[in-house]
Amino acid sequence: MMFGGLPHGADEDTPVFVISVAAQLSGMHAQTLRSYDRQGLVSPGRTSGGGRRYSMRDIALLREVQRLSQEDGVNLAGIKRIIELENQVDALRSRIAELTEELTAAYVAAEQTAAAVHASYRKDLVPMRQQTALVIWKPKKRI
Asked: The pTM is what?
């Protein structure tokens, strides 16, 4: 059963489209898709027999490659670099999210530990202010 153009249980990363369908969906020739695969611009999944299978994310990337090339005039080497940098930015964003979660958990743990320490204070002790004084002794001279 298809839902939103994808088989049941598939998501945007599931490689489901054969090259002819991917070419049609992206508005490109199948040979162009093969060329982009060889150049490392878009790397589809593979079947056990070696056939290419494209995901919806691959189709979106193919469309973006076409847009950058045709509308913005970026050459394929530039497009490859843009894709690499976007992937790097995505990876860094994921890492920031992970570190933010870890930091939040550490703050919560520290607050819980501090609360436990404060709760363990004896209630029958009353803190007193300590004072210190400096006394200078000057003995009187004997005559």
From this structure: 0.66
Q: Which helix (H) or strand (E) holds 82?
A: helix 76-119
Q: Which two tokens stand for residue 21?
A: 């369908």
SS3 98: helix
Provide the percentage of residues in the chain whose pLDDT is more than 70: 93
Is 98 exposed, middle or buried (CB count within 10 Å of its CB: 0-12, 13-18, 19+)?
exposed
Which residues is 3 bridged to in the sheet? 6
Residue range 50-105, pLDDT digits in tens? 999 999 999 999 999 999 999 999 999 999 999 999 999 999 999 999 999 999 99
Residues 63, 65, 66, 68, Cα dihedral to 10°: 120
Which residues neighbour 105 within 8 Å (Cβ) at sequence distance 6 or greater?
Answer: none
Decide if 50 contacts 11 (C-beta within 8 A): no
Longest dimension (CA), the chain: 119
Residue 45 main-chain phi, psi, to 5 deg: -70, 170
